[in-house]
Amino acid sequence: MAQPALELPVNDIVFQQVAARSHPGLKVVKRPYDQKKKRLKTEITVDEIRAMHSIFNTTTVDGGWRVAVIDTADEMNRNAANALLKLLEEPPANSAIILISHHPGKLLPTIRSRCRMLQFKPLNEVDVARILDEHSGTGIDLTPDERATITRLAHGSAGKALQLASGAGLKAHENLMSLLESLPHLDGAKAHKLAEQLNRRDAREEYNFFRQLLCEWLNSFVRFCTTGEGAHLPKRDFEVCQRLGSSVNLEPWLEVWEKTQTSFTQADILNLDKRQLLLTVFFQLETAAKQAQKS
User: Fold this and answer.
1) Predicted model pTM
2) For the chain, what is the mean pLDDT?
């Protein structure tokens, strides 16, 4: 039996309806836009998931399938995830729910167990840059240097690139680079100021970006020290790797890499104070840099 074609001509009515988000059998769930703050909210809430249910309570005109896309499932808060789980436990007939996830391990195990995983290869940097350009003027206006930085930080993910292109993403990267560039002599006053800044209630998005970028940089730094690979990094990230990675003693960095990963995980589970957590991580980085320098 011949397989149905997945491609449709651009003049096809279905193609046009999907592109315009007006197809009656399609629902795309994303973070809602905050009109007061003039930016996307930091998470997908239970209200968005409940609104998605409406598509499954109707019958399509042609009797076809109903499709819901959650972009991304990583951004659901706990209440939203639980609401989705109820739907997955008793999925409607002729329906497909597509969860886009950059970090599947962070999803509820009960959600993952009810899904089939389909992995996609990362986009190349040219395609990521093109997508950023296509969103220029929609709240995303980047300098050439900012675009180049985000393109590499995204690691082939268009969704991550668009998230990083927000003011919070770029600000988190700037703060991280300033911190790392000061090593091995950390400026205590600046470290305390940054920890206070990231601990504010209105800085939740920036805090999430900061911790993600820090963990990714540590992974890249260990990789650079062991293999010499760093061409995939943004310019400033690579330069810091070169300077701090001049020592052959990797043990202090492996230790701080492991402690940082564990500390952030425990902070999420136990709801620990972010300010103290960040200060601990900052001074662990300083200690690692000094120990490696002495070797």
Assistant:
1) 0.69
2) 88
